[in-house]
Amino acid sequence: MSSYTEYNVNGAYFRGPHYSKSQPSRPTRDPKQTNAYLVGSGIASLAAAVHLIRDAKVPTSQIHILESSPVPGGSMDGAGNSETGYILRGGRMLNFSYLCTYDLLSRVPSLTDPKKTVKQEIDEFNAIPAHKTNAHARLVAKGPSGPEIMDVTRMELNNKERLDLIKLAEESEKSLGLKRISECFTPEFFDTKFWYMWDTMFAFEPWHSAVEFKRYLHRFVQEFPRINSLAGVDRTPYNQYDSIILPIETYLKAQGVEFRYDTKVTSLSFSPDDLITAHEIHFASSKSGATGLIHVQEHDIVFVTLGSMTAASSIGSNTKPPKPLPSPEMGLRAPDGAWQLWSSLANPEVNPHYEQFGNPANFYSRVEESNWLSFTTTLHSPEFLERIEKFSGNKSGTGALMTFKDSAWLMSIVVPHQPHFINQAEGTEVFWGYGLFPSKGGDFVRKPMSECSGEEIFQELLGHLNFPSELANGVITIPCMLPYITSQFLTRKAGDRPEVLPKGSRNLALLGQYVEVPKDTVFTVEYSVRSAQMAVHEFMGTKHKPKDIYMGEHNVKVLVDALRILLT
Predict the structure, then answer these.
(1) Residue 2 contacts by C-beta under 8 Å, 6 or more apart in sequence?
(2) Which residues are within 8 A (CB) of 222 and not within 5 positions of it... i.e. 6 or more apart?
(3) CA angle 360, 361, 362 (to 5 degrees)
(4) CB 241 within 8 A of CB 78
(5) How far apart are CA 23 and CA 421, in angstroms?
(6) What is the 3-state secondary structure of 13-70?
(7) Phi/psi of residue 157, nearest 5 degrees
(8) Mutual orientation of helices 43-54 and 525-540 as an angle, nearest 10°?
(9) Residue 552: closest CA among 4, 96, 92
């Protein structure tokens, strides 16, 4: 998997890991003899299950998903109702360059029409002119008489800032090492329109890894000309739990895949030899604490999703704030067990192969650098969104991200197409938002966002919009503190993220946001799905290979368009 290929599809160039006949994958297992144990039920495990069925032909009754919570989806969640309020911990951008994700969704039938795939459903939804993303109020500034929509047709970077961006893009990951983004630019760069749009689009902060920032510059260079409108963002008909996770779960259950909910995997045991062979899976009931053991047979495979960006998240209410940030020790003991499991795999006292499992402490011990706070607002009157539409010029679902540039919390909101939940009651509307600096005091509510109830967060939003406070009547806002939400962006050393297939592994693969997939970008659905496809292909010897990584920089037109917007 060390060579690369380049080719052109519909005018876009791709470059990525190339599998050739001279580089065969690992010895093929007999799918009829293979049991697959997938630890976690986030998008990585669900993707692995789909490809084990469709590509590897593993009997569905031999695929077992072990999940510590009572529902699937991991960080791609969505729940609630009109009476008590809806809640989404986070939202994710989809983009045409997510080749592995769209490949996965082309294999899964839609919930609403079994004759269509989820991919077709998303394509049809985005093809409707009224659903096209074209933000008219991407950045909102504090003006002398109220909020003002900024002109973002020009980036207004100076020559040094442009050269610093190019220099960072050209520098090697090795030479960047542990550098933070802030070490690569002057302080003035972080007050440019480009930065405000780029950092809130992807949730970067100045202390995050320059390496990850560099990868994003390369991976999303095609979005430079649309950074001010977010026209390159694809939307799902509903929230991503209802539009992606639920259809996949429904499909897998209908096929006969076993889901073991409330089952927390606590550790793995390995065979006593030089190669990595998982031969026991230890688990405990999340409800009763009762323990159990799974014996992994010779032909079986084990896929473990490492870490969790939503572990130890705390959900407040309209009248109460979330709990404070946890200590590293508390995070390690989070109910889902994700960080504890990874830590046991990387512990030299319990695993002789620990060196192949990375450094989880780098990601779970720095919550002051990796947290932000999201909120979901449920409305029972159309007046608020009517005012948003009048102010922004965007109907619900077309405006993408609206960022309040001068907000001390750096608050942004997303107003999706309505309804946003399959079970959303008529007359109810929902939107989502977040603040990147929750430890700072508000501009209208004079305390940190992390200490605010949902009602207070909504009042702060009304202040930035200069809307009357009476609009808060009957509104339910649910805040959520996310201690690890950007932990995958933290500075790291080579080896802190383990490989998808650890060196010397016979039957164990690692999936998700904290493994190393060269050139691809964390904090995307694509990263998790790609890791799953890599694992299935390598262990099962499938003909279907992960699609190469989209690299728009190999298209001259993409580069010219990107440079043109940077020069404005």
Answers:
(1) 23
(2) 12, 97, 232, 550, 552, 555, 558, 562
(3) 90
(4) yes
(5) 46
(6) EEEEECCCCCCCCCCCCCHHHCCEEEECCCHHHHHHHHHHHHCCCCCHHHEEEECCCC
(7) -80, 145
(8) 40
(9) 96
Of 308, 307, 304, 306, residue with least CA distance to 294: 304
Residues in Cβ contact with 293 at an 8 Å cutoff, skipping those fewer than 6 apart: 280, 281, 282, 283
Two structure tokens written together for 8:
């052109």
Q: Are strands 401-404 and 411-414 parallel, antiparallel or unpaired?
A: antiparallel
The Cα 166–Cα 277 span in angstroms is 44
Q: How many helices (H) and strands (E) does the chain have?
A: 17, 20
Other Cβ atoms less than 10 A from the Cβ of 320: the count is 14
pLDDT profile of the chain (568 residues), mean per 10: 33 38 54 97 98 98 97 93 95 92 98 94 95 95 95 93 96 97 98 96 97 96 92 94 97 98 97 94 94 96 97 97 95 93 96 96 97 98 97 94 97 97 95 98 97 98 97 97 98 97 96 97 98 97 94 88 86
- The SS3 of residue 149 is strand
Q: Is the dihedral of CA 412, 96, 104, 246 positive or negative?
A: positive
Q: How far apart are CA 286 and CA 265, in angstroms?
A: 10
At a CB cut-off of 8 Å and minimum separation 6, what does 560 contact?
none
User: 131 forms bridges with which residues in the sheet?
Assistant: none
DSSP code per residue over 224-275:
GGGTTT-TT-B--SS-HIIIIIHHHHHHHHHHT-EEETTEEEEEEEE-SSSS
> Do the beta carbons of residue 5 and residue 16 sit within 8 Å?
yes
Number of Cβ within a 10 Å radius of residue 470: 8
What is Dmax (Cα atoms) for the chain? 72
How far apart, in whole angstroms, are the C-alpha atoms of residue 415 and residue 383? Answer: 14
Total length of the chain: 568
Query: If you write DSSP's letter for every residue of 170-203 in order, what string do you get?
Result: HS-HHHHTT-BGGGSS-GGGGGSHHHHHHHHHHT
